[in-house]
Amino acid sequence: MRRLLIGIIGIGLLGGLVWLIRRTCVPIGTVREGVPPESETACPAGYPIKGTIRPPDDFIVHVPGEATYDQTLPEICFAAVEDARKAGFEPAALTASSSTGRASAGERTDDHSSGV
Fold this sequence. Notes:
It is built from 3 helices and 4 strands. The chain is an alpha+beta fold. The protein has one domain (2-100). It has a 4-stranded mixed beta sheet with strand order 3-1-2-4.
């Protein structure tokens, strides 16, 4: 029974370690050109793009003007969206539409079945 309990605890610790590594590491060849946030909700001057990471591997970038930008808690900040993309982040609108299968506001769907 003791070995089983130790094994279960070990698996839990290993799983937590894997989650932490996946959360903080980016794939080889990916350059992180970002800086840490200056507060819980704010990025430093010159780095207005907020990057967030949702386990297991959703790297999301939030830009000023988005509805939830002010409430977003950044984990890394970028000077430009291009820098965030180089680091493996995708715009929030793209990740939201790809996860729901629907296009978000202002996104083209290329659906030509309007019945006209």
